[in-house]
Amino acid sequence: MDDVFKALADPTRRTILDELSERDDQTLFEICSRLTTKHGLGSTRQAISQHLAVLEAAGLVRTRRDGRYKLHSITPEPLRQIADRWLRDD
Amino acid sequence: MDDVFKALADPTRRTILDELSERDDQTLFEICSRLTTKHGLGSTRQAISQHLAVLEAAGLVRTRRDGRYKLHSITPEPLRQIADRWLRDD
DNA sequence: TTGACATGCAAGTGATCACTTGCCTATCAT
DNA sequence: ATGATAGGCAAGTGATCACTTGCATGTCAA
């Protein structure tokens, strides 16, 4: 659970989740190009790759291999427990 | 919104929210003693004070003065928007 | 097989963060 | 007024984080 909160602490990673929330099964290069064109972020491939590794370690992103492509998708399950933690009694 | 996610990234601050979620209007010293006794955390007063400042800046905690006491309460409104950001389409 | 494409690994750097340390201000009871 | 209580301010330190840099691996088309 700690990994989830720390993964969400970075604005670039939250934008990546926004992008994966709109379209599943994107490759690293697809995510990179969409971040620059749609969201105005100028990050290198390696930076995004490390962000995706953090998101995957937190269980917020799952990946599957397809040849030389690695397809990334969002896994929103860990997000469900977040708000519930302090909003139970409403 | 960025301040909210960064505030939640620290485990001690999340424990503070847990404690304030159980009991409103706690002073700094009350929070300190409960963190050590109930949650086994050995943090100094200054450390907790700084954590509370971060939580207040993020809008997750509101305070009110009562003489020499400063009473802290949780403000869960910013938390409602978090999970909704990526769970809209379910 | 060769070159281009997509990704992986790891050391290094600058900035940010959590925490400490020391001193100061304000409020209350006696 | 004086001491005790509750809290505030700010400089300094060590660890963590995001990012870069350079090179390596794996896959596919020609």
What's the count of strands of chain A?
Answer: 2
Helical/strand content category of chain A:
alpha+beta
Percentage of residues in DSSP E strands of chain A:
5-15%
Shape of chain A: globular
- Percent helix of chain A, as a range, is 55-70%
Profile the largest sheet of chain A: 2 strands, antiparallel
Query: Mean of the pLDDT scores of chain A?
Result: 94
Instruction: For the largest sheet of chain A, list the strands in their spatial order.
Output: 1-2
The first-to-last residue Cα distance of chain A is 23 Å
- Using only C-alpha atoms, the radius of gyration of chain A works out to 14 Å
SSE topology string of chain A: HHHHEEH
Number of helices of chain A: 5
Q: Regarding quaternary structure, how should these chains be classified?
A: homodimer
Largest interface (CB < 8 Å): A-B, 23 and 22 residues
> Can you tell me the residue ranges of chain A where pLDDT is under 50 for at least 5 consecutive residues?
none
